[in-house]
Amino acid sequence: MPHVFRFSRGMVAMAAALLISQGAAAEYLIVSFRDGTTTSFDLEDRPVVSLQTPMMTIKAGTVEAEYDCDSVEKFVIGDPGSTAPALAEGETRLTYRDRNSASVSGLEPGTRVTLYSTDGKTAASAVADASGSVTLDLSALSAGTYIISVSNGQSFKLIR
Fold first, then answer.
1. 101, pLDDT greater than 80
2. What is the DSSP code (8-state) at residue 36?
3. Rounded Cα–Cα distance for residues 36 and 25 (Å)
4. Residue 113 burial by CB count (10 A; 0-12/13-18/19+): exposed, middle or buried?
5. Per-residue burial over 1-21, b = 16 or more CB atoms within 10 Å of its CB, e = otherwise
6. Structure pTM?
7. Parallel, antiparallel, or unpaired for β 38-43 and 91-98?
8. What is the model's pLDDT at position 2?
9. Which of 43, 63, 80, 84 has the fewest other C-beta atoms within 10 Å?
10. Alpha-carbon distance 56 to 49, whole Å?
């Protein structure tokens, strides 16, 4: 059974602290925003949520994302060994289960996804297919930190 954390604008810190104290060993995390959009993470490592006002930071091994706390409605953490549910309408999902590829799904067909190195150079780029998915091959890239930027405004930091 997944753990659901729903909170008012002022309860973000308490929910994040609860998540950290539980040490949830999950493989997926779904973040729902007040504007009705959703972002989810299907990850190899357990996500940890922390708060440094006004930002909520999600870290899971080699992946990191930040969101303004006031924009977050709720987040759901999957049970250990569980898999993320099917994508909800309007949900964008990052899947990063090995260091050789990263996928973004739930996009509009034709949405551009670009992988940047920390010095701002384009390391890879692709366009979402008819199913709204993009998979970036990372196997030829050197070890380092990269940013996946989606033309819809989403971005994710990952370490290869």
1. yes
2. S
3. 27
4. buried
5. eeeebebeeeebeebbeebee
6. 0.76
7. parallel
8. 54
9. 80
10. 7
The residues pairing with 29 across neighbouring beta strands, listed in sequence order, are 41, 77
Six-digit token string for 73: 């409605």
Q: How far apart are CA 65 and CA 23, in angstroms?
A: 18
Q: What integer pLDDT is reported at residue 29 of this predicted model? A: 86
pLDDT at position 109 is 96
Is-contact 35 48, C-beta < 8 A?
Answer: no
Paired with 156 in beta bridges are 148
Q: CA–CA separation, 5 vs 11, rounded Å?
A: 10
User: What is the per-residue pLDDT across 20-43, written as a single tens digit (0 to 9) for each?
Assistant: 434 444 478 889 999 988 999 888
Token pair belonging to 87: 């994508």
Q: What are the helix (H) ranges across 23-65?
A: none
Coil, strand or helix: which one is 60? strand
Is the bond preceding residue 54 a cis peptide, omega within 30 degrees? yes
Return d(Cα 122, Cα 44) in angstroms, integer.
Answer: 25
Q: DSSP character for 12? A: H
